[in-house]
Amino acid sequence: MLANSLVTPTLPAIDLKRARSFYEDKLGLKAVQSSEQDVTYQAGAGTNIYVWQREPTSATDHTETVFAVQDIEEEVKDLKAKGVKFESYDMPGLRTDENDIAASDGARAAWFKDTEGNVLGLVQM
To answer: Is 59 helix (H, G, I), strand (E, B) or coil?
Structure first.
């Protein structure tokens, strides 16, 4: 049953106004529902991202949401032009290149953080 269900990533935000600016202005997502405590974005074919207001706690250290893209180099370039800072990694099994893109098993990926410290990723298969 769950194999055919749509999944909605749920991300916490300490400052919802700041988070909204990031998701709308930097990533270009459209809010389809919002209140003072939360916002839902349409992110692609049947996919939504839910961002909710939370009390300050430590941020996560793993990828929360991944966007599948056709041209990762172009997406990274576009987001960097909007001020998004990408993460660089240099560890066994994961090394990003000079453009902050990693390659592994035929896929290419890049990671960045939103204004709330959530790790988001791009992947090109």
So the answer is: coil
